[in-house]
Amino acid sequence: MDIDQAPIDTFIAELDADAVSPYKPPAGHILKKKLFLSQETPEQEDTTAFTAPPRVGLTPRTLLGATTEGMKQNAAPSCSKKKGRKRKKSGDVAASKIVVNDKLPTPWRKLHHLGEPMLPAHYVNKLTPDMRSVHDAILTKEKLLLQDRNPSYPILIAKVPTGFGFVNTYPADLIFIRYEDIFRLLHMQQLDRSLVRLISLSMAHDIAMENTTHIAIMDPYYMTPTVAQTEQAFLANYIKNFLVLNKDKNCFVIPYFREFKYCTLLLFHPYHSHVTYLDSGLDKEKDFTDLKSTLDKALSGFIAEVGVNKLRHEKKVKGCHVCNHITKFPCLKQSVDDNGMEAWFAILQMRAVVRSQNDLLLPSALQGKFVNMADTTDENMTYYVVYHGRVPGVYEDWEDCRRQVHRFSGNSYKGYTTLEEAETRYANFRAGQRREMWRTPFIVMMLAATVSLVYYVIVV
């Protein structure tokens, strides 16, 4: 055996030597038979010059060679350049985001049935006392209407009070709330414009009772695109009169209905010539041209009443005072477009603005304590301030608070998480009451003195 020869090569060579062709011609065989009579006798063939056909068998060396050649042909070509890292497409990233619901689903019927509860029993038990009384009163009234032969329309009527700057002349002196609107309110569906106006009036009442400075809420009765387009001078004069009436305020909150279901909250700072549009909708095409022109005219009239020297920031275009309109303010947005939740977002943002102004009335040690605090139910509050009840004051027990406000309508109480905040709120409320108490006798005394003086002059 050759030492330089590999064992596998020696083994393959031995197998090739022992390999025998499967075909061998017979020795000495000569074909001489004629198939036809005219066929000549073929010549004798030389058997020594016979060439064997190629072997059809596979030897180990043939198999090894074919396998090696196939591996070389199928081998991946070498690449000197590295492949770039694949990046995710923007569509893949958007598809991986979790969609958040703007409202809580309620396992109940989608439409209100007359004479049936608006919510399941376990949901009714979790309502606040005010909302539960409204729910039960509507249910009782509907059952009575079903027994009547000539039932009236199921509706609630609220009278607009004076002293809050809301429109109280016919036909805006009454707010009509259908039972269907209450059903939509309880199920977080699209809110009617009348219900948004009623909530705005309630918040304006709270601002007046708590003596909150620097902020005022305007009546959204005229704040529609139709009025801004066809009655622009009237609307500008109405806004100007409201600003002059509350000239000691710095921020004015104005709900504006672009359409029947699209609501945008406006923050108007006239002393800074600034208007911020808090719009939660995802639609990009919004036309505020008529509204901008109306607010600019209202600002010009307001400046003419209070004077230019009161302005902290002034902006003019062609010699006229105009507002700085911020229509794309990065506020809280809806997760889905056109889901009927714009009025809900406007109310949520309105409450956040009022709460931030209320925090300014607290002592400096408490101003930053209630930031980003989640709203809780009345039962989870620790201290309660009774504003209108049998005995107004601060209470720690929820049952005592409920007994004090029993049979009192409106916002007669509020809950707070700390005793210091509750006492501060109640002290501000009492201070406002004392000012009102002294104002009326003073006016009466002045009138009496004037009458006495006139009588003395006439008699003498």
Spans of 5+ residues with little confidence (pLDDT < 50)?
90-99, 372-379
Radius of gyration: 46 Å
Main sheet attributes: strand count, strand direction, barrel closure: 5 strands, mixed
How does the overall form come out from the CA principal axes?
Answer: globular
CATH superfamily of the domain at 190-361: Adenoviral Proteinase, Chain A
**What is the first-to-last residue Cα distance?**
160 Å
Describe this structure in words.
By secondary structure, this protein is of the alpha+beta class. Among the domains are: 104-188, no CATH class; 190-361, Adenoviral Proteinase, Chain A (Adenoviral Proteinase, Chain, 3-Layer(aba) Sandwich), CATH 3.40.395; 379-433, 3-Layer(aba) Sandwich (Ribonuclease HI, Chain A), CATH 3.40.970.10. The protein is built from 13 helices and 12 strands. It has helices at 7-18, 60-74, 90-96, 121-124, 129-147, 179-186, 193-209, 225-230, 232-245, 289-306, 342-359, 398-404, 419-459, and strands at residues 155-159, 174-178, 215-217, 251-257, 263-269, 274-278, 316-317, 320-321, 324-326, 383-386, 393-395, 413-416. The strands form 4 sheets. Strands 3-4-5-6-9 form a 5-stranded mixed beta sheet. Strand 10 and strand 11 form a beta hairpin. Helix 7 runs parallel beside helix 11 (342-359) and helix 9 (232-245) packs across helix 10. The longest helix is centred in the C-terminal third of the chain and has 41 residues, at 419-459. The chain is globular. The termini are far apart. The relative contact order is 0.07. Mean pLDDT is 74; it is low at 90-99 and 372-379.
